[in-house]
Amino acid sequence: MQKQNILFNLDDTLSYCNRYFNLVIDEFANHMMAWFDSITEEDIKQKQLQIDMAAISEHGLKSDRFPESFVGTYKYYCDLTGREKKKDEIQYLRELGFKVFEIPVEPIPYMNETLQRLKEEGHELYLHTGGDEANQHRKITQLELTTYFEHRIFISEHKDTTALSDILKTIKADPNVTWMVGNSLRTDIVPALETGIHAIYIPAESEWRYNIVEVNVEHSSVFITVDSLQEVPDVIYKRIQDPMM
């Protein structure tokens, strides 16, 4: 079998992520509604999302960006309503935001089986994940992902086409036998197609709005959507057997 280079995203591709952020955001919204009884849950969540997404362009996917979006939302509504900004409330919200990074990571079903099969078939597996070093290494350690990826792990605070292109140059990957597998249209699929490699899209159970973009990229590489992680080895196997798929 012809060896392939297969890059995997981590969050919501190999392990659950958004479900825990959503739980913490719900808790944040509940506290905010108790403090600001005239503000709706939807308004609070929309403002938090707006602040969070705006920070990505400047700070990338650093972890402390998320708690600061809680603080920024709180300060916005204090200014809007004339409510006093309280240091203890700000500190509480910052700690609440960081709580999401303490939740034990949970693998997506068939994560180990999928990675083990691809490894046994002789493919070179790489991990390309977005975030800061400390939080992503925490997840990698808990999931024991070095079993499959060894030292072939790349962590990007700005996970985009430039970051992926740099990785492909580093590993000297042939685009014809290189794949990106992920749940994010923005940070996984579009960069893959723009760099000329193949892409396998696995929609997450609940997607972060930041990840949702139109895929308007002219490409000659393979772009396939599957329902689950365990389908990935068969897709790649079929491509090897039939390069015209």
What this model shows, in words?
The chain has 245 residues and is of the alpha/beta class. 50% of the residues lie in helices and 11% in strands. The chain has ten helices and six strands, in the order βαααααβααβαβαββα. The protein has helices spanning 18-35, 41-59, 65-81, 87-98, 111-120, 133-143, 146-149, 161-171, 185-194, 232-241, and strands spanning 5-8, 124-130, 153-156, 178-182, 198-201, 223-225. It has a six-stranded parallel β-sheet, sandwiched between helices. Helix 9 links the parallel strand 4 and strand 5 (198-201). It is elongated, with a radius of gyration of 20 Å.
Beta-strand percent range? 5-15%
Main sheet attributes: strand count, strand direction, barrel closure: 6 strands, parallel
User: What is the overall number of helices?
Assistant: 10
Overall pLDDT, averaged? Answer: 94
Give a count of the beta strands, DSSP E runs of length 2 or more.
6
Cα separation of the termini = 16 Å
> What's the order of the H and E elements?
EHHHHHEHHEHEHEEH
What is the share of helical residues?
40-55%
Low-confidence stretches: none
The radius of gyration over CA amounts to 20 Å
User: Which class do the helix and strand fractions yield?
Assistant: alpha/beta
Shape: elongated
Widest sheet: strand order? Answer: 3-2-1-4-5-6
